[in-house]
Amino acid sequence: MGAKEKFLYLLAALCLLLGAAMQFVFTAVRFTGFLFWCAAAVLVLLALLDRWRKKHRWALWVRRGVLAALAAGFALFAVLEARVVSWARTDSVTPVSAVIVLGAGVNGTAPSLSLQTRLEAALEYVRDKPEVPVVVSGSQGPGEAISEAECMYRWLTARGLPPEQILLEEQADNTRENIRYSLELLEELGVDGTAEIAVVSSGYHLCRASTYMPGKMVPVAARMPGRYWPITVNYYVREAFALAADLVFSQAGGRAHPRELTAPAAL
Q1: DSSP E strand stretches across the chain
Q2: What global pTM score does this model have?
Q3: Distance, CA of 206 to CA of 83 (rounded, Å)
Q4: How do residues 177-200 score in pLDDT, each as one tens digit?
Q5: Fewer C-beta neighbours within 10 Å, C or N terminus of the chain?
Q6: Alpha carbon distances (Å) from 222 to 43, 101, 107, 119, 123
């Protein structure tokens, strides 16, 4: 076994250990752990191909194909991640006709940390917009005693937002449905779905939300506290893959993704 092959196996073992730690110990970053396992599999494959290419010409071409696929994948990831990051901002200047707050996990009847950051961003954004209707969107999921919309309604009204300013949308199980059903509620109020509408969500989530909006979406980004940066990085990485999956499913005419969990229950 050559030095290069040993090095690849060593890296693969390290990736396996990191992936296991993220899957079973630091469970809030499971997706990144899964990527480490994928990396371990690729490294083992490259090590084997490096050994076989000395005796089999086909192994050389397979190795080149794997490396080319990896390069293309990294390039696509970079493009998608740049789009995700570019939407992770708050536009506080553009006038809007309505605000949509996208749901996240609820711990019993209390908002998860992810949902609370969205609510804090929404409250800050609408404080000086008493005439703008606010739709809170999200159904009731596993482990949730009330719907995400109801949780958001209680939280916002408890902090001074007038109840009559808030519309509850309690059917949506995923981002596509959040936007669709919220726009239907707003249309009943006479708000044109193609008008400029603000969407409040976690920064990493806004890019994908924008792909479902028929008109111009005004982003309002919520951010996790700095000490949760590993979780934030995990979500930004995962979102690029989710955006790619959405593009594939939309081109293939597939159904929307099932219910999305934007944060573990503990958060």
Answers
A1: 98-102, 106-107, 110-111, 134-137, 166-169, 197-202, 217-222
A2: 0.86
A3: 10
A4: 999 999 999 999 999 988 999 999
A5: N
A6: 37, 10, 19, 8, 11
